[in-house]
Specification:
Layout (H helix, E strand, L loop, with lengths): L1 H27 L3 E7 L5 H12 L5 E7 L4 H8 L3 E6 L8 H9 L8 E5 L16 E7 L6 H4 L1 H5 L3 E5 L11 H11 L4 E4 L8 H17 L2
This protein binds magnesium ion.
């Protein structure tokens, strides 16, 4: 058991060092990075598709898409106007800093201001691996239920922002918005909470403003 813990610690340490290198590389190129995580079907790719045209006048965006086997999501991001790179994890349930480093190799960092990383659909594994991005965003969605912050506390507490997607389904789901919000706040008082619907567009302007504010804050900090 002790040996196993030591191995896991070593893997995490190596990953953190690679993440630091990714961060330095992004900052040298003036690129701000977002890591978007969620369960399968929460709407990560659709969120990115909706986000890209709304940012087009303000920021040039690159996307690294993590997926088990296909390039479907990167194709959608590219069709929506981003410079997109697909990373196939070969079955692994999350991206790690080394995979993102390979993605960065393929992106012209001098031509983008914002890097969006779409992690593999999984609510647990991706949240334990730093990638070198500047902010962590978790997308939850109404059909998944209002108990998710209570059931996956370590995932939610590590985030800078939680988005609740598919609010258009609130009228047909037994979802207590206040219970969800309370769960998020209890875990992490400082994080941004945004409810939105990629289908109707409700709440998307606040999300775009949040991204723009994060990028601005980071530019001023340099
Ligand atoms: Mg996707």
């Amino acid at each position: 058991m002790t040996q196993r813990v030591a191995v896991v610690e070593r893997i995490t340490k190596v990953n953190d060092q690679l993440a630091e290198a990714n961060r330095a590389r992004l900052e040298a190129a003036g690129v701000f990075g977002l890591n978007i995580m969620a369960s399968p079907g929460a709407g990560k790719t659709t969120l990115i598709e909706r986000t890209l045209p709304l940012l087009a006048e303000r920021l040039r965006v690159g996307v690294i898409d993590g997926d088990l086997a296909t390039s479907l999501d990167a194709e959608r991001a590219a069709a929506a106007g981003a410079l997109a790179v697909q990373i196939n994890t070969g079955g692994a349930c999350h991206l790690d800093a080394n995979m993102v480093a390979q993605g960065l190799e393929q992106l012209p960092l001098g031509e983008i201001d914002l890097l969006i990383v779409e992690n593999v659909g999984n609510l647990i594994c991706p949240t334990g691996f730093q990638l070198g991005t500047h902010r962590n965003v978790l997308v939850s969605s109404v059909p998944e239920g209002d108990d998710k912050p209570y059931k996956y506390p370590s995932s939610f507490s590590r985030m800078d922002a939680v988005l609740l997607n598919k609010t258009d389904l609130l009228p047909v789901c037994d979802f207590d918005l206040e219970r969800f919000r309370r769960g998020v706040r209890t875990l992490n008082e400082g994080l941004a909470f945004l409810a939105l619907s990629c289908k109707t567009g409700e709440g998307l302007p606040a999300w775009i403003d949040w991204i723009a504010a994060q990028v601005e804050t980071s530019r001023k900090g340099r």
